[in-house]
Amino acid sequence: MGISAVVRFRKAAVPPCNCGSSIAEALTLDCKYDSLSTSWLPPHCRDDEMTSLFEKSGPGPNGEWNYYASNFNTSKVFTIEEMALMAEKPDSERQAWATIEWHDKHCFFTLLKQVRGRAKMQYTGFPSGTAHAEHCAMGMAERRPGKQIVVSMNPGFGDAKPSELKMMIGHMGHQ
């Protein structure tokens, strides 16, 4: 079996990271909200240990992260539970913001998750693990102040929609 055949076989063997289009449907598919991916994910796409460590690595009490309603106003902050519920809202209401520090830790823990889950390429929100790794490396190399609120996210139900992929790819060069 050649290398390309192995790659095709491996891609075919990895089930999608789709959790439907509602919280009720996600729960019936054994999905749960994963704050590291800002998405509802099935068990084969999560690394609950990495997510738990990520949720305790922020600057807030008990290592919590802040998720802001705006990149200009820090008065409205969402909890992880509110982020999970946001996935059901219309696209125009599914946006939250975080700091560069959040982004760097998200990248760090997502890369660890990918290394730990090599045999099952888990959801990263990018068209490939390589694209996400490149995005993370570029972002961390910029060394912008960690408190800047410039990271936009749209909680969802697993694999990114084509429109979301376009937006993510467009932001790979960073602002």
Automatic annotation (TrEMBL):
Give the domain of life: Eukaryota
**InterPro entries, from UniProt?**
Phomopsin_biosynth_assoc
- What's the protein here called? Uncharacterized protein
What is the species listed in this Swiss-Prot or TrEMBL entry? Trichoderma harzianum
